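Archive entry. Fields below.
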Amino acid sequence: MATGGWLRIAAARVSPPTRSSLLRGLLAYRWLTVAWAAAVYAGVQLTRRGQADAVARPLVGYALVAAAVAFTGGLSLAYRRHPERLVQPVVVLAEITLGTAMLLADNWVHGSIVHPNTLPSVWVVGAVGAVAVAGGRRAAVVTGAGMGLARLVGLLPYASFGRAVFTGVSTVILLSLSGWVMGYLLHRLVEADRSISAYRAREEVARTLHDGVLQTLAIIQRRSADTELVTLARSQERELRDYLFGSPASAAGPGFGPGAEAGPDAAADGADLATGLRAAARRAEQRYGLDVQVVLAPDLPRSAPDGVALRLAAAVGEALTNAVKHGSAAKATVYAEPTDDGGLFVSVKDDGTGFDPATATEGEGLTRSIRGRMTEVGGQVEIDSRPGRGAEIRLYVPAAQHRGR
Amino acid sequence: MTAGGDGKRWLSHVRVVLADDHPIWRSGVRADLGENFRVVGEAGDAEAAVRVIRETSPDLVVCDLHMPNGGGIRVARECGEATTIVMLTVSEAERDLLDAVAAGASGYLIKSTPPDELRAALWRAAQGEPVFSPTLASLVLGEFRRVAKAAGGAEPLSDREREVLQHVARGHSYREIGEALFISPKTVENHVRNILGKLHLNRRQELVRYALDHGIQ
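PREDICTED_STRUCTURE:
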């Protein structure tokens, strides 16, 4: 069957969850409208009994309305077993046939042209929707127009030609337009679905590629004796890693952690904290060949007010310089986390020679300028070192400062 | 979680299984391991890794996080109780690492770790010491802050455990932490092991809760 063929091809385009929610929606629509149609028909039949405008063939009318209710019930059962049955060509054609028959018979049943609703009322739009899901926009428009013509044909024996055409054509327009609208929305849904899955696929490929590149850079660092090449590979690896796993705020997600509490205003006018700390670390790596690991808490606020972020980054940079110049350090760890009271904690730990904080004068200028920067934002500095044990500089910025204003 | 009753085993040489889908990487690590390690088996995917581990009962498994047939997570889940598993990974994505550790891995190392550090870390891991990098410690701290905020009976860290974990995140060695907190390095290790146990438990509870909330049987 040719129709079955194109119906099925077109049907394969929307993603399954989108399809089944659409079909469920159409089902709910059918129940509401079929209930409305049945109530109106019963009301008209009962109130006009014995009068001049009484329903001419009440039993046929009840049979047709009952058929629509039964058909809707059958669709519900079919949906529960397998949603796709609702858009099988046979089922869709059966619904179109029933709807068309009801529109054709409407005036024959009522006997008078003046009544509030046609027999099926807007229940027939459900069939047009099913065609839109199964076959797309054009098929839905054609179906809607065809069913509207059935209304016109059903009217001809009972009304003047002009009136039949006027009413028929407005039904044609109503039904084909709803077919077009549903088809158009579906078309956009299909496009959205398609671009989402294309995006996901690309992301998956990118992930594999990135892993491969990181792996290759790691192999170069292990296997190459060329120190320049190793340094290049290492800095490239860092950059890619920062880019991939970098932003702690994005890893934490919205609505979680002090970053979320600090609110949109902190993010809007503040400077990027993570970027500043990483830039300071990278500068020390490039300048002194110091191996700096930057460890950021997953719930570190994305940003801090300009003054705080800049001063923290500058203080970290000075601490790293200090570690190389006075401690001959080869490695350092920069760590940053939010504190319980909503402030910030940043530490710089090195593996250098260390010093006795009580007697040391070397590097005093540097530590003084670190203290100065922290005092400006109401923060504190702790310096912890012992000869032979490296040094650690700890910076605290309280909540009031870090949230700004 | 980690093998051995008190967590310490003294080994003359460590029997290792290497699992990674890139042969060039396996040969590279094999060359770097040196004479204290003996590679008793290799695997190119998670399924083969589980089989080889069951056949050879190694002291240590060095395992890539991303492998075909279930990856390192599957290996950790199926063999984490019986042997020590260290994840070797290029990925520092938060979820990957927490999943690996919650599944039963003793820790992870980044693939670009220099050979001497790799050797030292794997040696300590084989002796039963959890291999906690600063990054992992900071992720675990963040995870506990998260579950503490989310309602639901997750077990929180004790103040001491938090202190230990924060020191690891700041780049301190277990020995340095012990000196700073006036406890023995062995006590530090025990704290880290307890932290891993709590993480494991909380993760499992969360999975159960998630399943209940979403009606998954």
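CURATOR_NOTE: Confidence is low (pLDDT under 50) at residues 1-12, 247-269 of chain A.
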